[in-house]
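Re: the request from the purification team.
They wanted to know what the chain is likely to look like in 3D before they choose a buffer screen. I agreed to run a prediction and write the result into the notebook, where they can find it.
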Amino acid sequence: MNGSVMMDACCENKSSELALERAAASLVKGGFMLIFGVAVIGEAIYKSVAGAAPTAEAMGVVGVIALMANSICFLMLYRFRSDDINMRSTWLCSRNDLIANTGVIIAAVLVGATQTRWPDVVVGLIIAGLFLHSAWRVLGEASREWRASGPRAVKAEGEGSESVAKRDTCQQSSCCR
């Protein structure tokens, strides 16, 4: 096997490893979105059964502060939203946070106007639906990327001279650093 072919194989292996790492990170993020969505549904059920109206002022202040912070993150991530599954899932999290923060502010206004917990419960369920939908998308895309990036690594069957040459070529290749 010549050096160019070995370097190509090395770079393909490294690229495959990076794709697997990005897919794994996205699977974790998707899992967190799923857990968050389920937890918000649980909180909404609890509030609808046992809760009193939340403090509208506290909701509003926290919502505005979070919206400002998340807006900065969103703007920084916006241009990277289509780079790969990992950046897309990060951008979706940021977008969801903006929508959730806006929903909290709207719920705070409605809780203040109605003096009931129901606007908070309804907005919570909408936010949960958004996070569950995003989790479904991210988990699906990440799973597909995980399967597509599977172990395509060149598997050496021992430490013969060809295997050593592959390893040495990979270690010297700039794509593997």
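For the purification team: The chain has a mean pLDDT of 81.
Please add any questions underneath this entry.
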